Amino acid sequence: MKSLVHAVVGCGRVAPNHVDGFSALPDVEVRWACDRDATAARSFAREHGLPRVTTDVREVLADPEVDSVSVVTGHATHHGLVAAALEAGKHVLVEKPLALSVEEGTALTSLAERTGRVLSVVSQHRYDRVVTAVRDWIGAGLLGGLVSGVVSLQCGRDDAYYAGSDWRGTYAGEGGSAMVNQGYHALDVTRWLTGGLTVVGAAAGHTAPRGGMETEDTLAALLRGPRGALVTYQVTVASSITWRTRVELIGTRGSVLFDLDHPGTLHLADGNEELRAAAAALTSAEVEQAPPGIGYYGISHRSQIADFAAAVRDGHRMVADDRAGLDTLVLLQDIYRAARHEAAVPALSAPVG
Length: 353
Ligand SMILES: NC(=O)c1ccc[n+]([C@@H]2O[C@H](COP(=O)([O-])OP(=O)(O)OC[C@H]3O[C@@H](n4cnc5c(N)ncnc54)[C@H](O)[C@@H]3O)[C@@H](O)[C@H]2O)c1
Description:
There is one protein chain. By secondary structure, this protein is of the alpha/beta class. The protein contains twelve helices and 13 strands. A seven-stranded mixed β-sheet has the order 8-9-10-7-11-12-13. It has a six-stranded parallel β-sheet with strand order 3-2-1-4-5-6, sandwiched between helices. It starts with a strand and ends in a 9-residue tail after the last helix. The site of nicotinamide-adenine-dinucleotide (NAD) has 26 residues, from loops.
């Protein structure tokens, strides 16, 4: 089998997870480290043993042996970099979100279709052991009909995280903050498990903004599943706890509560004997390996990257493909729109002073 030649564009916080995932595969060469910051590119290449370094993505895309590219940069740059890579005939794994706007995201899915290249948006938690098990249980009817859900992420990001970045905490660079960045996964996984969500209402706030951020640090939304289940979703980056997620799904036959932390934990699966037995089998199985980068990113980049490399070779449809990324982007934008609308609605009850 011919080696797959891969390049990493953007050498920041999550880039090590990409090198780790591709390096673990047989017949893959991770060749290029590309970052517009020469020091970042050089030190990343040295640390991970990558043979080629550049500050100019055009050099990567001009390499005829490069088959695929990870786009691991700030949100506003995704559209331009992904479009250029697809136009150059490369397959693309882009970090979430697919793009800043639905229009840009739609243009990218059309371009992937036209060029016949794989475009996958990172949603690594769709590959978590607990999440895939819950998805199977829902499919097998072990929860019955979903009626309710409670989904939350509390995490802590300090002033330096925003103040030290030219894109985080800005509408132009990040497109929002707490939801589109940290809260993305809990929303994406819940949308996937419930079979789709629409927005009933939302509010976003600056409860304790860090490092001069102009975007939301806290957001809450009320969402509805396809058969009417009501889901509350909350996210904040202003907690004193670094990372803690909870996803609770309540069905007419059974309920589950699990997290997207590392290692992913099933906290509850109850309501019928079949579900309890499935949960016991899951929790007794072999547990997780150590994550390659920042702990709460988990280990499932490895699984998505293995799926991506297989899709490049055999063309199968991934569970985290560009359509899934676009659908989650649409939901994110609907929630932000509802939150902006909420701000325009005058309060009927006076705040208690
Ligand atoms: N899946 C996850 O769990 C996860 C975790 C963290 C970040 N992310 C996502 O990964 C992406 C990057 O996040 P990060 O925290 O690594 O960011 P970062 O700011 O730490 O790193 C981004 C790097 O991209 C470089 N860059 C920007 N524009 C470039 C260009 N045109 N060409 C080459 N290099 C360029 C920057 O110089 C920087 O070094 C974002 O989309 C973020 O939401 C995902």
